[in-house]
Design a protein that fits this description.
Outer membrane phospholipase (ompla), Chain C, 13 strands, about 300 residues
Amino acid sequence: MNISFLIFIITLSFPLFLFAGEDESKPSAIFNSKERLNHIKKKYDSLLDKKYILLPHSGIYLIPFSYNFNPNNKSYSSLTSTPELSGRGKYNKNLETELQISFMFLITRNIFNFGFNIFAGYTHRAWWQVYNKEWSRPFRETNYEPEIFARKIFDEPKSIVGGKLVAYDFGLIHQSNGQVQELSRSWNRIFLRFAIIFHETFINTSIWYRLPDAIDKDDNHDIHHYLGYGSIEINQNFFKSRMQLKIIPGTKKQGLELSCSYPWNEGLRYFIKVGYGYGLSLIDYKNEEQRIGIGMALSDLFSQ
């Protein structure tokens, strides 16, 4: 891994910290944690009272300019190496557009009177070679991630290792890229997901077990080496800025995504995202990426 790239990440992120510090509003640290949690829970419950509404899930953003310092062209060699197509150049150019759409909706409330709500969720990530005119601007890679899960939110958060457990989920998730066999990547997992608050830091951590595929149908038998058996997301608000660090702890190779957002207009935020390492997308999970992008994101309860 390139240390100079990490220095580059910090250098680009630092101005946003300074920009956040210029805001003269009171920092969230002066508010009581219980009051903030109750405020968020009331907003959340009011959304659940509405029928047929899509709820925010893992974030929605658009990054028109996403630059990859180390694009992977090996996966597309079956296309680019054919004589009639080789003159078009790279299929995976450095500059592209990245986007994510993620939502969930309520299926039923308080199932069996145990306090669990059942949700269906969907996350859609895409990498669009919009600047690659030679290849007709294709969507180079798309990751589809439907899931179904039960969620329990505690009226009184539970103490856990110095923090407060406010909610947990358990369910089933499928992820694939919908490609033909040569480029296909897919897996199914059962998972546990925990939402924990440590003072001013919100942590969303997951552990999972991969449901085995038949040997002759397994597109990515070694994916646990790069995506591991779980993930960790660390969220921190600094005045009006929100920082998020996602850690991908593979058993042999690791990756991370660092993002920072700042209010722009009502419901929209400036957004910078940096990716470094392995497991950032299914097609490239074995390729070390060094990526930075700038765009916009939709606000949610926590960034507000």
